[in-house]
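Weekly sync, protein design subgroup
Attendees: M.S., D.O., the rotation student, P.L. (late)

Item 1: inverse folding check
M.S. brought a backbone from last month's batch and wanted to see whether the design step gives back something sensible before we order anything. D.O. pointed out we never logged the input encoding, so this time it goes straight into the notes. C-alpha cells as presented (264 positions):
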C-alpha cells in the first residue's frame, strides 16, 4: 500500500482546485502554519498529498462554523502530531455533524475539477446511486452536488466492490443510524426533557435546556464514532485475526464515551 508521502503528487494548482480554494489561499495557510510544507520534488516543485487536502477541508469546515483564523490556528495546534488524512477526515466529520447539508449547483467541468479526475457516465451513475449528486434537469452536464460527500464518493469509485455492495452498506448504515438516533432521542426525552418539562419553567430555563441539548450532540457523536471503531476492530479481529487490541482488553459500553478514537 502506498504511504501518504508516496501519494504527494498534487501541484499547488491541483490542490487548490481539488479543495475549491485559490492558490493564494493555500500559500497563505502555509505561511501561517495551518498547512504542513509540501514535499519538494524534481525541479524544486512542491507536491501535496491527501493530508493537505483533508486539512484544507477541516479548515473550511471550521470557518463555516464561524471560527476566526486565530481560533482555527489554536484548534489545529491542539491536534496530535502525525494525523493521517483519515484522522483529519474524522475530525472534520465531528465538526460538521450539526451543520446543514452543503449542496451546490455545478457544471460537469467544475465537478471534475473538484473531483480531481475525469468522470465518465458510469462514474456519474455510481455517484448518483450513492446520493452524492443528481442531475438537475437544466442540462445533461449540470448537477446538484453534496460537497460533504463528494470526496468520499470519488474515493469509493476506485474501491474494488460492486455498486450494489456499496449501496447495501449505505442502507445498513442508515438503518442502524436512524435506529440509534430514535432510541437516544427517546431516552433524552424520557429521562431529561420529560421530568424537567413537567415542572415550572421560565424563559432562562428553556434557553438553558436548549443549550444542553445542543452541547450534548457532539458528545453523542464522539461516543458513537468511538464505539463503532472499537466494535469494528473487534469484528475484524474475530473474522480475520487482524486489528489492534483496544485498551488491553475487551471494550465496554462504559469505555465508548471517551475521546474520539481516530485511528484507522
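Designed sequence read out in the meeting:
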Amino acid at each position: 500500500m502506498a504511504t501518504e508521502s508516496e501519494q504527494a503528487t498534487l501541484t499547488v494548482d491541483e490542490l487548490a482546485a481539488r479543495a475549491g480554494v485559490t492558490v493564494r489561499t493555500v500559500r497563505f495557510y502555509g505561511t501561517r502554519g495551518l498547512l504542513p510544507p509540501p514535499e519538494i520534488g524534481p525541479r524544486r516543485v512542491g507536491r501535496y498529498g491527501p493530508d493537505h487536502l483533508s486539512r484544507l477541508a477541516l479548515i473550511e469546515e471550521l470557518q463555516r462554523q464561524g471560527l476566526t483564523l486565530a481560533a482555527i490556528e489554536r484548534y489545529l495546534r491542539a491536534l496530535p502530531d502525525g494525523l493521517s488524512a483519515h484522522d483529519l477526515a474524522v475530525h472534520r466529520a465531528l465538526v460538521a455533524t450539526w451543520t446543514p447539508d452543503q449542496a451546490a449547483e455545478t457544471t460537469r467541468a467544475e465537478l471534475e475539477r473538484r473531483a480531481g479526475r475525469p468522470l465518465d457516465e458510469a462514474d456519474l451513475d455510481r455517484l448518483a446511486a450513492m446520493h452524492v449528486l443528481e442531475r438537475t434537469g437544466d442540462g445533461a452536464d449540470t448537477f446538484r452536488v453534496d460537497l460533504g460527500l463528494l470526496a468520499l464518493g470519488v474515493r469509493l469509485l476506485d474501491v474494488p466492490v460492486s455498486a450494489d455492495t456499496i449501496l447495501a452498506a449505505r442502507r445498513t448504515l442508515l438503518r442502524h443510524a436512524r435506529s440509534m438516533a430514535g432510541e437516544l432521542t427517546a431516552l433524552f426525552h424520557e429521562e431529561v426533557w420529560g421530568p424537567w418539562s413537567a415542572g415550572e419553567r421560565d424563559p432562562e430555563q428553556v434557553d438553558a435546556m436548549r443549550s444542553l441539548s445542543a452541547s450534548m450532540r457532539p458528545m453523542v457523536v464522539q461516543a458513537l464514532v468511538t464505539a463503532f471503531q472499537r466494535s469494528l476492530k473487534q469484528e475484524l479481529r474475530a473474522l480475520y485475526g487482524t486489528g489492534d487490541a483496544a485498551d488491553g482488553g475487551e471494550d465496554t459500553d462504559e469505555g465508548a464515551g471517551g475521546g474520539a478514537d481516530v485511528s484507522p
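Discussion: Residues 1-6, 245-264 have pLDDT under 50 and may be disordered. The longest strand covers residues 103-107.
Action: P.L. to compare against the previous round before Friday.
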